[in-house]
What we know:
By secondary structure, the chain is mostly beta strands. The protein has 1 helix and 13 strands, in the order βαββββββββββββ.
Amino acid sequence: MYKTFILALAMAGATSTAALAQSALDASGAENRIEDLNEDIEDDFGRDTPQFGNEGRAIGFDGSFSLQGSATSGNTDTASLGLGADMGYFDGTNGYELQLSYQFSENEGVTDEDSLLYKLQYTRDFARNYYGFAKLQGNVESLPFDTSDNFLGAGVGYRVFDTASTQWSVQAGVGYRVAELNSADDLEEGALAVSSDYYNQLTPTLAVTNDTDIIGSDSDTVVYNDLGMNVNMTETLALRTSVVTEYHTDPEPGKDDTDNTFGVSLVYNFN
């Protein structure tokens, strides 16, 4: 029998708590939580060699659809719906990708979430170490007010290192942002985006990743950085640590300019 023992610890500058819906008689409660924890940790450990342009894509169509829904009645009346789509096409040179994510939920007849995230991207390979891209992405939310934030941009990507142990690619582009926000004046402004994806297999058991995204505009410049380390300590024990930093040059009134999230994931497998 194959079993997995998982210990996860997350420390963040801002934390949230949720009410426990299960009781001691709910046999599926622990199992569901373990499955969710497994998925979260698999996502962490799955961040390895970054994709470059259309690298690794198969010719033709690919994609997936997902649907999730739940409803309760009795002491509480709730309903939730989640839709997801990730579709793509590649002809050997040109790549197209469409991603959609819709979430809806209500509690006691009152809607508390109604949002759509989307991304449409075109990628063209020019050479082994160069590619160009154009993308339209954004979000639309109806709660607590009707808001939207959309970005249209284009740019190029360049592969700096490509060895068996080291991958480093950078991407830069310019675009235009249109946002309808409730907490501030509507925005229509140019924006600059720069990103870096770095992966280094230092030893057979130690790998380091560092992903950086910088988006600059007149209203604010934000820097996202995700530094992580994967360690295979033994054949049965693996560890990942990470530090995620978000920095704003012009944060909203009353908010700090920097948020840090520290994470540790430990997986132990035994027979």
